[in-house]
Every structure is written in structure tokens, then in C-alpha cells.
Amino acid sequence: MAAAQRTLAEAYPGRFVLGIGVSHAPIVDARGHRYERPLDRMRGYLDAMDAAPWQGPPLPEQPPRMLAALGPRMLELAAERSAGALTYHSTPEATAWARSILGGGSLLAVEQAVLLEEDASEARRIGREYIAFYLTLPNYVRAWERAGFGPEDLPAGGSDRLVDAMVAWGSPEPISERVDAHLDAGADHVCLHALDADPNALPIGAWRTLAPALHGR
After folding, report:
1. Mind listing the pLDDT tens digit for each residue in 86-137?
2. H helices present in the chain, as ranges
3. How far is residue 216's CA from residue 148's CA, in Å, rounded to a whole number?
4. Is 194 helix (H, G, I), strand (E, B) or coil?
């Protein structure tokens, strides 16, 4: 991992940021590993990366890495041992909370799912299909509970409130407002995860529609 990061940093200076995370228990267990003590595992992995040999030319600076983080201790580790944190399925309020833990010296990049669909029923149908898998992952459920969602928000693919919080849908205007809310809450970067009625489609049309609306953010 360390050698690949340095190779890309050498080939494309300033263009690559490595993001790493510990994944989730159901995914790790399905691959025949044991998901245990994730914070300690990440610390040990970062130690091993720092000690890994590099036989390429010297780099002018250590290439940046960021940690996928949902909980407070992983956010603290991201601030301590990396350039910052990557968050996923977060509300602007959760972004503000993450920033309060990271402090002002770390990067915070958040993912925001977006959907150009103005019919509420259709938008929520697509949104539920998108978050259904994440409802099976305890780390996300705990993160949503910290964000104020309760047991009533979790059954049947998620409540309207949960779906609306995770997926910004409608015209470009409310999507832009959600992006602004994350930036105002302390995010340095907002990655738009454009959804489509066809989950296998490449959402080029959505990107092209949203690009001018978000230009300059």
C-alpha cells in the first residue's frame, strides 16, 4: 500500500490522496477474516506503512493519506496520523461534529448522495434501494444513532427522514443547498455520489446538470 501510494505520488505529483479504512464486520467476516479492535488494527497498519521500505527516488514530501472515519476515536486517529478524514452517509450536523473532533488543521472530505428526481415517491424509492445495504452495517447504524436517528428510522429500508437526510434529491437548487450546508459545517470537500434509477448506469447526465450549478464551490 505504501509503495503504491508513493509510486502514484511520484508519477502524478499533487494529484493522489490515499484513503484507507477498516471496513465493516459483515464484509470482513465474509472474507474469512476477523473484525476486531478496528482502532488498534488501523494504528498497527499505519505503523507498518510508515516503516515500509521504498526503493524509488526520494519524494519531496510524504504523500497525503486520509482515514475513513465514522466514530469519534477514528476521527481522532485521523487527525493524529493522517491528513484528515473521509466521511460517508453524513448529515451537515454530523459534518460539524466531525470537524469539532478533527480540529482546524485536518482535511475533512464528505460524501453526499444526490439524485436529480423531483417526484418524492420515486426519489425515496431510489434512495431506499441505495441505503438498504448500509442498514445492515452496524457502524453506520451507530453513526446514524449518534446523529439523532432512532429505531423507528431503521425498518423497511429506512424512514423518509433518514432517506431524505442521506440523499439530497430534487432539482439542482436543493442539492446545491445541501453541499453548501456541509461546507458551512466545516467540510473542505464534498464528493457528490450521483444516483440513478438504474443502479448500474453511469450518471453522466446528472454530472453535467449539476456541474454548472455547483461551479465555484
Report:
1. 999 999 999 999 999 999 999 999 999 999 999 999 999 999 999 999 999 9
2. 2-11, 25-30, 38-51, 72-81, 92-102, 120-131, 138-146, 160-166, 172-184, 204-214
3. 32
4. strand
Facing residues of 84 across strands? 66, 107
Q: What is the DSSP letter of 111?
A: E
CA distance linking residue 83 with residue 66, whole number of Å: 5
Sign of CA pseudo-dihedral 50, 82, 56, 7: positive
Q: Using alpha carbons only, what angle is made at residue 107 by residues 74 and 8, rounded to the nearest 5 degrees?
A: 95
Domain ranges of the chain: 2-214
Q: What is the CATH number of domain 2-214?
A: 3.20.20.30
Nearest to 20 by CA among 77, 70, 65: 65
Find out whether 67 and 41 touch, Cβ atoms under 8 Å.
Answer: no
- pLDDT tens digit sequence for 133-192: 999 999 999 999 999 999 999 999 999 999 999 999 999 999 999 999 999 999 999 999
Per DSSP bridges, beta strands 65-68 and 18-20 are parallel
H helix or E strand, kind and range, residue 110: strand 107-115
Single out the residue of 128, 122, 124, 112 nearest to residue 214, CA to CA: 112
Cell of 72: 469519534
Kindly report whether the global pTM for this prediction surpasses the value 0.85.
yes
Rounded Cα gap, residues 113 and 196, in angstroms: 10
